[in-house]
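REQUEST
  id: r-88c1
  op: predict_structure
  target: Pseudouridine-5'-phosphate glycosidase
  payload:
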Amino acid sequence: MTPAADTAGVLRVADEVAEALSSGRPVVALETTLVSHGFSQGRGLVAAQQAERRVRAAGAVPCTVGVADGLVRAGLDAAELARFAEAGTAARKAGARDIAACVAQRLLGVTTVGGTLAVCRVLGIRFMGTGGIGGVHRGFAESLDISSDLVELARTPAMVVCSGAKAILDVPATAELLETLSVPVLGWRTDTLPVFYRGEGGPPVAARVDGAADAARIAALHWRLAGASGLLLGRPPQPELDIEPVLAEAVGRVAQAGVTGQAVTPAVLALVEELTGGRSVEVNQQLIADNAALAAEVAVAYAAVAG
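RESPONSE
  id: r-88c1
  status: 200
  body:
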């Protein structure tokens, strides 16, 4: 995407978001892939609404990002958010590479973590909340299936608050690649990277933080000293759910069915939901809301540090 000055006519920023950015108030970006692809039966809309409410309650402005009617929309109203939910998997998953095509072809595009970060880079949004990031897929040596979320995180000066990489991924390999890309991985009151549904079992983090002000100071110093790359803040989910046996079965069944590319994650998550009797959905919705709230807390702390 081009610099903000060159986006007239293709980027629509909600008034509330624009006013917050111009006045230096904290803003938290939120993705829309989870709305359309992350849950079944419209539960993604509930998750998105909860995340926005938690951001506001923590003192920041939510900026949910999507593509519709030939525009990148930064900040969705209730009707627009419902439209993405109603579209379901018919909406195109839009990483950074897909945004221009979605705009030019007037497609309904739901932004991934990477796609949302691309918009953050244009607008200067420093914080994002999500469930889990994409990363290195299991069996990557044969397929080279690695999410562009990691590339966008490495090139965008924003902190992504999440519960680690999605559980269907090769988490240790993802952590190794983040280290290669010089992306600091911080642990929120933990010494290891959360594994999405579980708080423990991941690789060690680069640094542990125990408060929002601590995380904000590290982010501010990182952007001053190490350039325009992002940071990851891993927050353990509460409650937790150990789904590794179920997950292994779901990944295997999806692979046997020949599902590849962007279709893998929603297919696996749908199977996990079925095999856990819906328990995975409850945990997922809660961690998304909690991560959004923490992103807002750190954004508020950062506004005080930066100001």
